[in-house]
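Quick one, probably user error.
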């Protein structure tokens, strides 16, 4: 297939590379020349503009920071250029209302659309083992499935347009809160004289066990691949976690759902970002708790 891929950042670069490796003709575009050069080195063809990437495409994947980026790419490059019947897969994490709006605009232009946000992080994007939560019609889901299968290990139809984003923000609200709780537990354990590795060995086999601990431990050592071992560089930026927590709080307000832990998680990530930690991986919340931020 001819696949346009727009947004080749931390996540998009690995995803586009996997599509190219599977034999698709991937026409890639990013505003960053560096990101574009990385994609071409991995088998993609560089497009001069997003519209150029979309021209003649069978499918279009977007992996952009926020809803307004996706809306502007849709308005400026996809709607004017995509042929009827083209499928758009938005894999970015954005708000439910914008996702539903994108679906309606795509449908009006006779384009297929799925919102297909991902879980799994950069390592899973590179390895092609992401989890996709997909919103859209059964027909659009069926068309998207084989493309998503190249980039992921689990592809789940969550319901109509917007449902993928609903699942994603609920998941990330849980992730943000569980990372803060994990970081608090390791900080307290250390202050009580426990060795972090020893506490990990115990808690990872006890009832405190969770993904934030066993796959993404906020202290260096127990999980070698975790960003804590690289001074919290790379990974999933705290600013993006804050974005997702804000989306969750907006959705909670709109649906009259009490989410006190989610609200507290948003406040703590806001503080981390305000103290200059927005570019650090989200496990750097431990630096806010143990007072090591900026040291
Ligand atoms: P990123 O900032 O690394 O990448 C985004 C890319 O989009 C950048 O390279 C930027 O130059 C490009 N871009 C922005 N506007 C553009 C435009 N108009 N046209 C073309 N390119 C444009 O972000 P990321 O970490 O790759 O995350 C992308 C999305 O995936 C976000 O919505 C994020 O919340 C979500 N996500 C990220 C992770 C993670 O671990 N990083 C995990 C799950 C979901």
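Nope, works fine. Designed sequence:
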């Amino acid at each position: 297939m001819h696949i346009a891929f727009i947004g080749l950042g931390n996540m998009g670069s690995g995803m586009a590379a996997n599509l190219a490796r599977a034999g698709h003709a991937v026409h890639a575009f990013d505003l960053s020349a560096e990101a574009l050069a990385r994609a071409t080195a991995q088998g993609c063809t560089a497009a001069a503009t997003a519209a150029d990437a979309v021209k003649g495409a069978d499918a279009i994947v977007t992996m952009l920071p926020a809803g307004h980026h996706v809306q502007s790419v849709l308005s400026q490059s996809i709607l004017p250029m995509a042929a009827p019947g083209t499928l758009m897969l938005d894999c970015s994490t954005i708000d439910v209302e914008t996702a539903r709006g994108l679906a309606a605009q795509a449908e009006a232009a006779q384009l297929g659309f799925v919102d297909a946000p991902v879980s799994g992080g950069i390592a899973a994007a590179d390895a092609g083992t992401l989890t996709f939560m997909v919103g859209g019609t059964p027909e659009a889901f069926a068309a998207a499935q084989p493309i998503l299968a190249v980039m992921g290990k689990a592809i789940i139809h969550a319901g109509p347009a917007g449902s993928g984003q609903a699942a994603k923000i609920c998941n990330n609200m849980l992730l943000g809160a569980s990372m803060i709780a994990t970081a608090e537990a390791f900080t307290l354990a250390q202050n009580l004289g426990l060795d972090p590795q020893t506490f990990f060995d115990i808690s990872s086999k006890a009832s405190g066990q969770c993904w934030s601990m066993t796959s993404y431990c906020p202290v260096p050592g127990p999980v070698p691949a975790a960003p804590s071992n690289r001074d919290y560089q790379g990974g999933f930026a705290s600013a993006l976690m804050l974005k997702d927590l804000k989306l969750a709080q907006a959705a909670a307000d709109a649906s009259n759902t009490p989410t006190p832990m989610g609200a507290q998680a948003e406040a703590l990530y806001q503080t981390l970002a305000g103290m200059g930690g927005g570019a650090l991986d989200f496990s750097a919340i431990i630096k806010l708790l143990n007072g090591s931020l900026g040291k």
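DSSP finds 13 helices and nine strands in the chain.
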